[in-house]
């Protein structure tokens, strides 16, 4: 079964339940909505944000419709509102991954409003950490650092070492983009220490389950890349790809293209070209704006290299890009 068929067939299981205005809403409905959101997270991990956005937006609309038309006690109402906030964050993430940053910001704003209304620190930390990542990605590293610090202030009381590790890595990323290599290294070292302590304290929230040593290796590689130490970046980018779980298909594609970019920047043109062509196997099932942007970056870099392997890679990447455009 190919990706498009699988995603289409997953609509029923991932989209949750539909309720009329006369229906009473109970715990079973909340559980089903939550399971729908988990399914959408799994689809996103495997295939990227572009293919899953419409499903998640529809899921959010169902939850909001139930909130506004259903009958339920206050305890169920609070759970539904929290689900709406969590789902709005996921919508934001998917639009971020699809490289539609304005729409992502709108959904993040909705989720932050819900977190404030409910006074829910878990949701607030999630939104602030995601906004930090977006700010650094958009070239607003000072905002990214301040948002990560705000997330840290709220997360400390939650007592999860892995969550604090994730936030420290966001602080490190922002400082790296600001070219503060000393500060970035300090925060990344802290992120690694906290990850090693993840079996102590409280468990991380479910949304942070992806964070681990693969992501920290990747962060270390990006840190070296930002400071122009491309040869030093390569071993970490390679380790990140090696350690990345196969369940995260989108990340595998992104990491392999980033490794290809690092190799080309380090002067390892033949190997960089080989990794770029090898990434096409991952890309066949992934639709992600961020991955597509990285693909174009790698093709542009290889286009400036006078080598047979680079020219062949550019030809292969161009053929893939053109073929994908024709299929859409």
Could you explain how this protein is built, in words?
This protein has helices at 3-9, 11-14, 27-47, 53-69, 74-97, 101-118, 121-137, 141-155, 161-177, 181-196, 213-226, 230-243, 249-265, 269-278, 280-283, 289-303, 308-327. The chain is an all-alpha fold and 328 residues long. The protein has three domains: 1-119; 121-211, Serine Threonine Protein Phosphatase 5, Tetratricopeptide repeat (Alpha Horseshoe), CATH 1.25.40; 230-328, no CATH class. Helix 6 (101-118) runs antiparallel to helix 7 (121-137), helix 14 packs antiparallel against helix 16 (289-303) and helix 14 runs parallel beside helix 17. It is globular, with a radius of gyration of 21 Å. It starts with a helix and ends with a helix.
Task: Report the structural category.
Answer: mainly alpha
**Total E-strand runs:** 0
> What portion of residues belong to β-strands?
under 5%
C-alpha Rg (nearest Å): 21 Å
Q: Please give the alpha-carbon distance between the first and last residues.
A: 19 Å
The average pLDDT value, as a whole number, equals 90
- Report the major sheet: none
How would you spell out the order of helices and strands? HHHHHHHHHHHHHHHHH
Uncertain spans: 1-8, 10-16
* Overall tally of structural domains: 3
Amount of helix: over 70%
Work out the helix count.
17
What's the shape?
globular
């Amino acid at each position: 079964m190919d990706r498009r068929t699988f995603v289409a067939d997953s609509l029923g299981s991932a989209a949750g339940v539909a309720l009329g205005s006369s229906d009473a809403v109970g715990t079973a409905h909340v559980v089903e909505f939550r399971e729908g959101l988990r399914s959408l997270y799994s689809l996103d991990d495997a295939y990227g944000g572009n293919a899953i956005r419409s499903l998640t937006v529809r899921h959010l609309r169902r939850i909001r419709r139930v909130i506004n038309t259903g009958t339920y006690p206050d305890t169920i109402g609070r759970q539904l509102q929290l689900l709406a906030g969590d789902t709005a964050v996921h919508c934001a993430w998917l639009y971020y991954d699809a490289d539609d940053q304005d729409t992502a910001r709108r959904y993040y704003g909705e989720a932050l409003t819900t977190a404030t209304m409910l006074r829910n620190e878990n949701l607030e930390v999630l939104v602030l950490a995601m906004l930090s990542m977006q700010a650094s990605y958009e070239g607003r590293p000072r905002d990214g650092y301040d948002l990560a610090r705000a997330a840290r202030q709220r997360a400390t009381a939650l007592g999860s070492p892995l969550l604090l590790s994730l936030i420290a890595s966001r602080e490190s990323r922002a400082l790296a983009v600001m070219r503060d290599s000393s500060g970035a290294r300090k925060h990344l070292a802290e992120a690694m220490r906290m990850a090693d302590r993840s079996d102590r304290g409280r468990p991380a929230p479910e949304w942070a389950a992806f964070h681990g040593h693969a992501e920290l290796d990747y962060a270390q590689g990006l840190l070296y890349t930002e400071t122009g130490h491309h040869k030093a970046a390569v071993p970490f980018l390679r380790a990140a790809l090696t350690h990345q779980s196969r369940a995260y298909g989108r990340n595998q594609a992104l990491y392999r293209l980033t490794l290809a970019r690092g190799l080309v920047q380090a002067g390892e043109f033949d190997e960089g070209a080989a990794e770029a062509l090898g990434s096409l196997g991952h890309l066949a099932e992934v639709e992600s704006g961020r991955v597509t942007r990285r693909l174009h970056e790698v093709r542009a870099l290889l286009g400036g290299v006078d080598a047979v392997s680079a020219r062949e890679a550019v030809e292969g990447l161009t053929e893939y890009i053109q073929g994908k455009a024709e299929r859409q």
